[in-house]
Amino acid sequence: MEAFSVEIVTPIKILNQESVKYIRCPGIDGSFGIMKKHREGVFALDIGEIKIETNSETEWYSTSGGFVEIGSDKVELLLESVEKSNEIDVKRATEALERAKNRKSNPQEKIDSTRLEASLTRAMNRLRVSKK
Prior knowledge:
Layout: E1 4-9, E2 14-27, E3 30-34, E4 41-45, E5 48-54, E6 58-63, E7 66-70, E8 74-79, E9 82-84, H1 90-105, H2 113-130
Helix pairs in contact: 1-2
């Protein structure tokens, strides 16, 4: 099986991965996989998990969305945020989930429901990915 490179770019860091055999991304319309010689294109990404497989290991990342550009030999992810599963601060993610749940259950508090739902989804995703 042929390999390709992956570059993950966020506002605060750049990650590079060589010899990638497969990557699965959280698309807006559902997850999709990418292998060598995939059709080129640009796709929007949603909150979710990214799975990257190389010859030697599988890595999991949590993302809050962005875009992926698939080229002939390289896949570039432009993301709002990304965290490797073993680097996620579980305590912080749990506290964020609790804050969002408390805001949702308090009818007196003025809240932006769209932002609240996004906060809940991001926190739950981070906790789920941290277990991989």
